[in-house]
Amino acid sequence: MKRLALAVLVAAAVVAPGGAAAALDAADQPGERGTAPRAEDYTWAEGRHAVLPPGRAGSSEAQCPPGQVPTGGGYDAFDEGGADLRVRTDAPTGDGWRAVARNTSSTRTIEFWAVVLCAPGTQTRSPRLAPVDR
User: Fold this and answer.
1) How far apart are CA 3 and CA 83, in angstroms?
2) pLDDT above 70 covers what percent of the chain?
3) How far apart are alpha carbons 4 and 8 in whole angstroms?
4) Tell me: the pLDDT tens digits for 24-68?
5) Counting CB atoms within 10 angstroms of each CB, which of 42, 60, 88, 103 has the fewest?
6) Contact 117, 9 (CB under 8 A)
7) pTM to 2 decimal places
8) DSSP labels, 10-50
9) Are 117 and 70 in contact, with CB atoms under 8 Å apart?
10) What is the mean pLDDT of the chain?
11) Phi/psi of residue 13, each to 5°?
12) d(Cα 112, Cα 108) in Å, to the nearest integer?
């Protein structure tokens, strides 16, 4: 099978000011207090490989190891020709990344899977904002 470069990687939030980086408290960082994680602290994980016959849909979910949170992710695929994969979901979960896709080919089978980049930290949620009265 020929490898089709369909990998989509969402920008790592740990480098985006004001993004999800706020979810990583300085106390959660490895090394000295307030230092950013080093490259070797990150984990790249792949989900279960889904084999999609022509016209069929499937899903894959990649999980971060305990003590790590997703910072970005996407999907990758193998197929024998063109890009006949329609991705319907490509989004983070609480502890990883989920992708759902359909093989739009009428003749070829496609193998695809979710991928996630994880960093040390704990998941936090933003406080819910109160509705604005007008």
Assistant:
1) 11
2) 63
3) 12
4) 444 444 555 566 667 788 899 999 999 999 999 999 999 999 999
5) 88
6) yes
7) 0.64
8) PPPGGGSTTTGGGGS-GGGSSSSTTPPPPGGG-EEEE-PPE
9) yes
10) 75
11) -65, -20
12) 13
